[in-house]
Design brief:
Elements (H helix, E strand, L loop, with lengths): L2 H5 L20 E2 L2 E2 L4 H6 L3 E5 L6 E5 L11 E4 L3 E6 L16 H7 L4 E2 L5 E5 L2 E11 L2 E9 L7
Antiparallel strand pairs: 1-2, 3-4, 4-5, 5-6, 6-10, 7-8, 8-9, 9-10
Length: 156
């Protein structure tokens, strides 16, 4: 399985708190923004290192959404900073799409979405032309998704 597929495994997130939930997009999730350096992202207090980069991209989790073994919640590129953030159960896009949304809801929220040859449904993030959403759909439902910089260099 690809790193993307492995990373899209939904985490078993804890019950939602009473506070308003941040959305995944248009610039990141909560205080963690696409393009942040490791130092900036660490300073948010919202991430924990999971996989060393070894000179390449390092794998991290959002503390609120720990992922299973062999998965990560986000990648940080030494060149680009936070390059991709993967959705967990309980997250949603600003247009309300979450794991479990139907393909019809996805298409209604993002009418310009296109299916790639990899099988993912991809669209530019409304309000952030430097990033895109990539949705994995199975049996008519969203089973995983991510937001990533268009020029991310952490996975294919």
């Amino acid at each position: 399985a690809s790193l993307l597929a492995a990373s899209l495994v939904a985490s078993g997130a804890t019950a939602a708190s009473a506070e308003a939930k941040p959305t995944l997009g248009p610039y990141g999730y909560g205080a963690v923004k696409l393009g942040m350096t490791v130092k900036q992202a660490r300073a948010t207090g919202a991430i924990v290192k999971k996989l060393p980069g070894g000179g390449g991209c390092s794998g991290w989790d959002l503390k609120r959404f720990p992922t299973p073994k062999n998965s990560v919640g986000l990648y940080i590129s030494p060149r680009l900073g936070v390059a991709a953030i993967f959705a967990a159960k309980g997250m949603k896009t600003p247009r309300g799409i979450r794991i479990g949304s139907t393909f019809r809801q996805l298409k209604r929220a993002y009418p310009r979405i296109k299916k790639t040859f990899h099988g993912y449904h991809v669209t530019t993030v409304p309000g952030n032309r430097k990033a895109h959403y990539s949705f994995e759909v199975s049996k008519g439902k969203v089973v995983g998704y991510s937001i990533a910089l268009n020029n991310q260099d952490c996975y294919n």
